[in-house]
Amino acid sequence: MEKIFIGVAWPYANGSLHLGHLAGCYLPADIFARFCRMNGKDVLMVSGSDEHGTPITITANNEGATPQQIVDRYHKEHKENMETLGISFDLFTRTTTENHTRVVHDIFMTLYNKGYVYAKESEAFYCEHCKRFLPDRYIEGVCPFCGSKNARGDQCDECGKLLDPKDLK
Fold this sequence. Notes:
2 domains; two-stranded antiparallel sheet; Rubrerythrin, domain 2; alpha/beta; Rossmann fold
């Protein structure tokens, strides 16, 4: 029997899912998985909540919560949404599980040992007040493309352009 693996996007567990998540990746993946299963294929469809990332710490800071409280709340909500919608995941998990950590570590080490991952110096912004380095998402300014005053250092939510924090005005 032919085996089909469907790896669906892992949204950050920092807020509720929206129609774009459903239409953009979950519904098409579910349709494909169901089609393959109907045609006798052995399908494994997986996804879950990405519990690592700056959007989670931003939400936690804004809500006066810990990052763990945020990811616990939204992973539960995301999983319930998938079940309510009948999305046919074989596994909807979290990036903090022991299995996920082991698999990612194995992939990373394979890439590292083959020379695809290497050390490199890069510049980073530092906040004297906070006494910490800031991820690009914490840098805010004016988008050089559309002029939005609410652009972040990684992407402008207004026009969708990917940004370098140094380019913000």
